[in-house]
Design brief:
alpha+beta, 8-stranded mixed sheet, 24 strands
């Protein structure tokens, strides 16, 4: 039987290839995800290992809130006097202080050199000292000396065509400053730091530029011979203030790698989820394809039974075919993943997500998981067809047109489908609503529940196909004549087959619809929130729309003629009642540009906060039973705990609040938070929004290329770009499952062309033209695609409604225009899927077709 199965597989190469495509694409996504994320992890690990290569111990800043949470993502600095104390320790041979911060390079066009959200890194260097702690290598030139020199990274120099001696801008805490490029550097071991740029300054210049005179961000320490790094750490520990911590160089590299790997693991799981979706869709394609081929091989299987083959042997022969297809497809997908990894990286770069790269990592785990998952999914998908094959009676070998008998439980199909949908919905609701679950348990419950919903709808689709095909096929029957009428009849002829084919497309369209509906709701509520609170003429934000900007940029606008109000909002992290909270700082005149509803208080409150006043959000006040006059203790990243008197409670708009849980005066905020910056500022001008006012404000911002001025409409549109970017990324990733489903349609049509060869020959013999045959296949494909959209889009809307309700989503908005586009895309997809089968059907030789068995 093994030989028979393999020979039969070799004789059906096209069918085997079409079956394998779904697994190839799904496994390629798994392999590509692992290769990409493993390569990025390797790059980060190499960077951190290189950075701390010659460091026995490293002292760094530490946020009192843990995990270095701060208003700008940087840990607080500590006093420079600590350096002298460390140097005097008996186990220390050498110690050097350093500054590490964020600063953007500015190109010749006056714009910030940046790729998406990649950071602009800045480091200090001691040009005349021992460079043992310096992880950078000079590619050319010299280390910067004095207040007018800078070294930049080789990647930026190459991309932007900068050479030694050229001038380049650097912007940090205040206006742009111009420096001469003295050197070009790189970190060894990696080909790229992604979109990040580097500005290297001498130590005194870095301290001055970042306003850290008398402060340090790190101290690198080398131990005397015979002193172990762990012993050195124990010596240093008693000297440290609350805002500093010490680790061995090796431990710091591991911790930094762990921190980045935590993000990358989430990123990896995110991509693997889409690979799982593609494989889930692929399982429908495989099961459908094998079911069709088994139905077409009824006489062949019956002949084997007549010759003595047992049910078990027939079943195993089908499973063997599936195993071979799955193994070969998984192997092809494994290596296709290498190319897909580069494609995924290109997609992320185009969306502004540019991460460091090193040499490609092709781990053993990638090979094992890809092969096991691909082969396993294929075998699981083939179980039902394999069991179905065992029901072929030997007598079918002598019957013309014999078909497989229905199963014993076939009549219970609709009831089982409804029960599956109900159970899956309940499981989703458990994950969405029940408290006390871990994130992993919640995601697993939602994921399995969603898969169950899709499976239940797919089971029910067999019952829904005839009426859907009758309605959706009406235009084809009306305009396509006999070919259109036959196409509609073909779609209804075998409801189970059409349902299985359409279900694959249904899943992809349902997920795309889910994402679109949630995104539309988010946009609607955000716009509503902005409309309700925006009481200014202009908004000042970073050029990338989300980074904080220097307070100096807001101050520059106050000197523009016609400006009446400029008010900024700072943001930082804090802790109150043992929980992390958002803390904002506002100017006293903020109520003139931002309007919120006050539950207890008035628009005058921001101007009355003083040194110890605060106003809180309604939810925060309710949760902690706060009222006006009560005191709330807030801990800051610097380790200070400050008591604030609640002077008002505000009701934030549902689409997003301009303020955090606790809001204090900007003056007090600046005294508590290191490097205070504005998230955004709002401007009111005499005459409102006019071209002249816009030009004056833009001119005032010339020294601040990291900031831009916007009208209310522009502000809303630019803030929504982040949503659009995520939406586009999800569309790209979900497109893989839709491509798999298209191959499912191609599979079904090609196999039905084989199955109906004699029928097509008869149609040609009675006068149907080649063109009519092609149109019949195309119409059948389009009807199947429309059935998939008729099932998928409503399921996606319902899932979005459930998810939105469970997470108290601020709005439920159905994007009708987008859904119409999805339907049109389904029609186009159906036409594309029909190209090859329609050509094959149209080119059949009439006489050969009439003789085909």
């Amino acid at each position: 039987m093994i030989r028979v199965a393999l020979k039969g597989l070799a004789g059906r190469k096209l069918r085997a290839v079409l079956t394998a495509v779904a697994i190839v694409l799904g496994v390629a996504m798994i392999s590509g995800t692992y290769v990409l994320t493993d390569t990025i992890k390797s790059a980060f690990s190499t960077v951190f290992t290189q950075v701390y290569k010659h460091t026995d111990a490293i002292v760094t800043g530490k946020s009192a809130l843990g995990n270095n949470r701060n208003n700008n993502g940087l840990p607080p600095s500590f006093p420079e006097t600590l350096l002298g104390k460390v140097r005097n320790l008996p186990g220390v041979e050498e110690a050097t202080g350093g500054i590490s911060d964020l600063a953007h390079l500015v190109g010749r066009d006056g714009k910030v050199i940046a790729s998406g959200g990649a950071p602009g890194l800045a480091f200090s260097v001691h040009p005349h000292g021992d460079q043992r702690f310096n992880p950078l290598e000079l590619v050319s030139g010299t280390w910067p000396v004095g207040p007018h020199e800078v070294a930049i990274d080789a990647n930026t120099a190459s991309k932007k065509d900068y050479k030694l001696g050229d001038s380049i801008g650097v912007i940090a805490r205040g206006p742009e400053q111009t420096f001469r490029i003295s050197g070009i550097v790189k970190i060894g071991g990696v080909s790229s730091l992604g979109g990040a740029t580097m500005a290297i300054l001498d130590f005194p210049t870095a301290q001055k530029l970042f306003r850290k005179e008398g402060r340090l961000d790190s101290i690198s320490v080398a131990a005397k011979p015979g002193v172990k790094p762990q012993e050195l750490v124990k010596e240093i520990q008693p000297l440290l203030p609350p805002t500093a911590q010490v680790r061995t160089g090796q431990a710091q590299a591991k911790q930094a790698t762990k921190d980045t790997n935590g993000f990358l693991s989430i990123f990896q799981d995110f991509l693997l989820a889409f690979a799982g979706v593609a494989l889930f869709v692929g399982s429908f394609v495989i099961a459908n394809t094998l079911s069709i081929t088994i139905a077409q091989r009824t006489r062949e299987l019956a002949t084997l039974r007549t010759l003595g083959a047992t049910r078990r042997q027939v079943r195993n022969s089908v499973l063997l075919e599936a195993f071979v297809i799955g193994a070969l497809a998984s192997l092809a997908g494994l290596f296709l993943g290498l190319a897909l990894a580069k494609g995924l990286n290109a997609v992320f770069v185009s969306l502004g997500i540019d991460l460091p790269q090193a040499s490609t990592v092709f781990a053993t785990r990638t090979i094992v998981v890809s092969m096991l998952v691909g082969t396993g999914i294929t075998l699981l998908a083939s179980l039902r067809p394999a069991i179905r094959a065992t029901r072929v009676p030997p007598i079918s070998a002598v019957r013309e047109g014999a078909v497989l008998p229905p199963g014993r439980f076939a009549r219970f199909g609709p009831h089982a489908a409804l029960l599956t949908i109900a159970a899956a919905t309940a499981l989703m609701l458990v994950g969405l609503l029940v408290g006390g679950l871990t994130t992993a348990q919640r995601l697993l419950s939602i994921g399995v529940g969603a898969a169950g919903v899709f499976l239940g709808v797919a089971m029910l689709a067999k019952t829904l196909v005839p009426p859907l095909a009758r309605v959706l096929g009406w235009p084809a029957a009306k305009t396509g004549g006999a070919a259109g009428e036959l196409a509609r009849g073909n779609a209804m002829r075998n409801p189970a087959r059409t349902a299985s084919t359409a279900s694959a497309l249904m899943i992809g369209l349902a997920l795309v619809t889910l994402v679109s509906v949630l995104a539309a709701g988010l946009k609607t509520r955000f716009e509503s929130a902005v409309n309700s609170v925006f009481n200014a003429d202009y908004a000042l934000t970073a050029t990338d729309n989300f980074s904080p900007i220097s307070i100096a940029s807001s101050e520059a606008l106050t000197r523009v003629p016609g400006v009446q109000v400029v008010s900024g909002v700072r943001a930082g992290q804090g802790k109150a009642f043992g929980k992390d909270i958002g803390v904002t700082g506002v100017d006293g005149n903020v109520s003139k540009v931002i309007t919120v509803d006050w539950q207890d208080g008035s628009q005058a409150v921001p101007g009355e906060l003083g040194h110890d006043g605060a106003f809180v959000s309604k939810d925060f006040a309710t949760k902690h039973h706060l009222a006006v006059g009560d005191t709330v203790a807030v801990e800051t990243p610097g380790g200070k705990t400050v008591d604030f008197v609640v002077k008002a409670v505000f009701s934030p708009p549902k689409g997003g609040s301009p303020y955090g849980d606790v809001t204090i005066s900007s003056t007090r905020f600046d005294s508590l938070y290191e490097n205070p910056q504005n998230v955004y500022s709002f401007v009111r001008m005499a005459g409102g929004v006019t071209p002249a006012n816009t030009a004056r404000l833009t001119a005032a911002l010339q020294p601040f290329p990291d900031a831009k001025i916007q009208t209310e409409t522009q502000f809303k549109r630019n803030q929504e770009r982040g949503i659009d970017m995520l939406l586009n990324l999800l569309y790209v990733l979900l497109s893989l499952s839709i491509i798999v489903s298209l191959f499912g349609i191609v599979n079904t049509l090609v196999l039905t062309v084989f199955e109906r060869t004699r029928e097509l020959g008869m149609l040609r013999a009675v006068g149907m033209t080649r063109r009519q045959v092609r149109w019949m296949i195309r119409d059948e494909s389009v009807i199947t695609a429309l059935i998939g959209s008729a099932l998928g889009i409503p399921v996606g809307v319902v899932l979005a409604l459930m998810v939105g309700y469970a997470i108290k989503y601020p709005a439920f908005t159905v994007p009708w225009g987008t859904l119409v586009v999805f339907v049109i895309a389904a029609v186009v997809a159906g036409l594309i899927a029909a190209i090859f089968p329609a050509r094959r059907a149209g080119r059949l030789n009439v006489l050969e077709a009439l003789q085909y068995e």
